[in-house]
Amino acid sequence: MVYFVESPREGSRVPVIYLDTDLPENSAEDRPLTDHLYGGEESYRIKQEMVLGIGGVRMLKKLGSRSRISHE
After folding, report:
1. d(CA 5, CA 47)
2. Cys-Cys with 4: which of 10, 13, 29, 71 at CB 3.0–4.6 Å?
């Protein structure tokens, strides 16, 4: 899902993209990974970091993004 928000720089708009794992094609174990961030046990957190890190970069490439800056 993509939202656009006002940037603090001269009133421009920037995209904010949310990743969601609650999709029918995902396993029952993986679907709740994006229900809330940074909670639970270490293995849960590692799975979230993989979704956000690896999946996020892959998604941005498929969207044609050439940005070299991201929130970590």
Report:
1. 28
2. 13
